[in-house]
Design brief:
The chain is mainly β. It folds into 2 domains: 48-141, Carboxypeptidase-like, regulatory domain (Immunoglobulin-like), CATH 2.60.40.1120; 146-253, Immunoglobulin-like. 13% of the residues lie in helices and 41% in strands. Strands 6, 10, 13, 14, 16 and 18 form a 6-stranded mixed sheet that branches. Strands 1, 4, 8 and 9 form a 4-stranded mixed sheet that branches. The chain has a 4-stranded antiparallel sheet with strand order 3-2-5-7. A hairpin with a 2-residue loop joins strand 13 and strand 14. Residues 1-5, 25-40, 227-236 and 240-244 have low confidence and may be disordered.
Amino acid sequence: MLYRHQPRRGQSSAQRNRNQFVAIVLCAIVGAVFAPGQSVGAKTPSPGSIQGLVTDPTGKPVAGTAVWAIRAFSSVPVSVPISVAVNTDAKGFYLFPTMAPASYRICVGSEGAMLLDPCAWSANPPIWNLESGQSAKVNIELVQGVFVHVRVDDPSGAIAKVEQSSSGSAFIVSGLSTSGQRVHFLEVVSDASGRTFRALIPSGNNVQVQLSTPLSVTDALGNSVSSIATPGITTPVAVSSTGPGEQTLRLSVR
């Protein structure tokens, strides 16, 4: 049996058209509100903040040191930079005032005070999952480290001569600690008699120092520790940081 919709009696054609138009508009509104992927009352995530104190192992505030908030993960689109940096004030306080909701690693660099960056050396670096509109407090206590130096005696200026001819670095020092982290040595002294490279590592670690240079290098005993034929990583030389104070590996360019 076939049923047909019959217009309501007493209703004019104009009224029927008006009712149909209203029904179409209502359907469009409902469809927009309940569109796939959207929820009723959904709100745009609000920025939050991360703040805290940076102290040394004795609890003393670490003033004027750089603090980074590095985004590790975000479940919502984020347009802010992946890494943001601020400095601690005189009381060791830092503040990231406007941060998008995301997961952040909080890193601190205070090598001059011989304090280790927790993002590089801690087994559990400080990570905070910042919620929408949240004001998070993340205090960080830094661990004391030990400087390891590599002094390269170069009275003839061989390193500088190679760099002038190649327009690049002729001597790179890196390493691997016994705890598994890569160690990056920075050049801190360059004078007429040679160069000094420095890295900060945890006390009690050994570091396998590696050289990348086309020059011939010997250790304090006259043993060759690099290859003249081809530049590249050489046989590692062990340096211990278990002793008191700073440790130095002395090398010579021939």
